[in-house]
Amino acid sequence: MKKSYHSICRWTFNPGKGGFVPSNIRPSWTSDKFDTVDFIKLIAEKIKTRLPENIVIGIELHYDTEINEKNVKDVVSVMKENNIYLALITPGAHSYFAYGGIASLDPNERKKAEEFGIKTIDIGYEMKDVFLNNKEPSFVLWNGSWGYDILTPFIKKMYENLKESIVKLCQYEEKKGGKLYFAIEPKPNEGHPAMLIPTVASAILLWKKLNEEYGLNLEKKGINKEFGHSEMIGLDHIYDTVEEIDNKMIVHMHINSQGYNDGIIFGGPGKFDIDYGARINGMNIVTARLIQEAGYDRWRGHDIQARPYDNEEKAIERVIRSILAWESCEIVAQNMNMKEILEYLINRETDKVEDIMRDLVSESFKIFKSLYG
């Protein structure tokens, strides 16, 4: 059976969100009891064993809260023991820089944020023993400080700073070995009311400008498509996928959900970043078919959060269900009768297309139940 590559985020395994909901609903996952090594052991013991044998597991980590100079050797060691790979690394610069990061108009903050990105690349290469051949990790560029809350003409200067800093970071990585895939993760807001790269189209345009203005090689450059971020502002992640494919820029995927187009859970446009797991619905089946036709064969990431009332056991189930839900969508997508659908569309018989898609969703739920057991 063909291998399928899924990655699990370290940050999913937290004791609770806090704020308006409990911060200690999962007490065994507090930082003093549960570190990144413990996280990998948990995946090996309680998640991998529940998945079909064709599924390969990777992990996603923030520097420096989840992977750093102190724990990198131990983390790599336990990953090797359990055949778990590095799928994504990202600078957790939003934990330190709140005024633009590498786009900041404060030169001191910008310099420190650039240095933080360099350290993230260095740590990534210290983990090269857990790179999977031909599935090397993505270096995701997302930062909650790449935004603003006051409107001035100097937003353009922030954008120029961002471009210059990304080019320098990519050039540094190229000298280290050029193994990483760079993926911009668009987001409309958080942690500012407005962000510099809010949409997939914004990110594609940015890469094109970096090639045009700086001669940056766009091989291994692209998008970390996060379904929920498009849904947050009512955009269509199917059309996002079409744009990414057209520009050969699907590098990584976060197949989460805002609860949009589901009819079972609540969420959707205008809501905060809920980070539900992958859902079984027509949009995801269509997206699965599109990436199959495009030959995408890299990591399917599960950037999700447990519900604020979930204990540890139920939070683990959310991850397993997300992985198997997406697998179910991919299985039925492979069997989609494209010729029949096209004929109905040519003849304007969209009612019959609705019936086909409804049947595919139903079949996907049946597959999910058989996989979930």
Task: Characterise this structure.
This protein starts with a strand and ends with a helix. The strands form two sheets. Strands 1-2-3-4-6-8-9-10 form an eight-stranded parallel β-barrel, surrounded by four helices. Strands 5-7 form a two-stranded antiparallel ribbon. 44% of the residues lie in helices and 13% in strands. The chain has eleven helices and ten strands. Strand 1, helix 1 (36-47) and strand 2 form a beta-alpha-beta unit. The protein is an alpha/beta fold and 373 residues long. The mean pLDDT is 96. The chain has one domain (4-335): Divalent-metal-dependent TIM barrel enzymes (TIM Barrel, Alpha-Beta Barrel). Helix 3 runs parallel beside helix 4 (155-176), helix 7 (237-246) runs parallel beside helix 8 and helix 9 (312-334) crosses helix 11.
Features:
about 15% strand, two-stranded antiparallel sheet, about 375 residues, globular, alpha/beta, 8-stranded parallel β-barrel, TIM Barrel
Question: Secondary structure elements and their pairing?
Answer:
Layout: E1 4-9, H1 36-47, E2 55-63, H2 72-81, E3 85-91, H3 107-126, E4 138-141, E5 147-148, H4 155-176, E6 181-184, E7 194-195, H5 200-214, E8 221-226, H6 227-232, H7 237-246, E9 250-254, H8 282-294, E10 300-302, H9 312-334, H10 338-346, H11 350-372
Parallel strand pairs: 1-2, 1-10, 2-3, 3-4, 4-6, 6-8, 8-9, 9-10
Antiparallel strand pairs: 5-7
Helix pairs in contact: 1-2, 3-4, 7-8, 8-9, 9-11
